[in-house]
Design brief:
single chain, alpha/beta, Immunoglobulin-like, six-stranded antiparallel beta sheet, five-stranded parallel beta sheet, 14 strands
Amino acid sequence: MPSCLLLIAALVAAQVAVSSPAEPVVAVWYRGTPAGTPRQDDLAAIRAQGFTGVTWPAGQTSRVDELRRIAGSLGLAVTVQAAPVPLTAASALRPTDRVDVDVTHLAADGIPALVWRAVGHGARTIAFDSGSQAGAPLTDATGRPLPWVGAASAIARQLTFNARLFLDARAGPRIAIQPPAPAGVDVVLLETGRAWMLIATNTSNARATTVAELPAAVPPALWTSLLDGSGLSMLSRPSGPRWTFELAAGEAAIWVIDK
């Protein structure tokens, strides 16, 4: 097994052994069925998709204790917030710890780049808002899953599985992108005591190919994709690895390597 996969497995084992209340949370905005009334079936459906929390409107406080009781029994965290503030490509570069993703105006294939960009820059609670004012927030009127659910659920599961890795991550040295830098491309280097992590995102509407220059302290190989388990080697140079990469519109790539 590659060393990076061993590292990830060890981090996950530590996470299971010691549950942390500060784990990353991927939530959905939930307003009740009918509005203001929490329903266990709705919350169970949210949990079944891999989400770990719900965000409840601050204007609906009369039954929030009931919501917390039901959600707690299902392993869902509850956050009470005012109106959502939609995340943008620009604000994802300087996010607060908690961000809202308005999926009513965001194509499903644009979700990975936007959300992983925010995570790479420090966001640890992500709340997806389908705009549903009442009823299950994951389905349309016919009961079919909404287009955004698959992409959001995949992010939720990745952050849950690798929670300790993201909790321990801190900003690493700045990455230089060779000019001309493609519009919409961002690359951030994070580090823990045991690993380096690269998060590259493309929030533009076009495929982008670019070259990133990494610091000399970072190994050129063997990187492992956190998203699909594939491997990566970079061009080794005395000044540091050179990484030539391509991202489709809306795509994110996450790579991890042992220190």
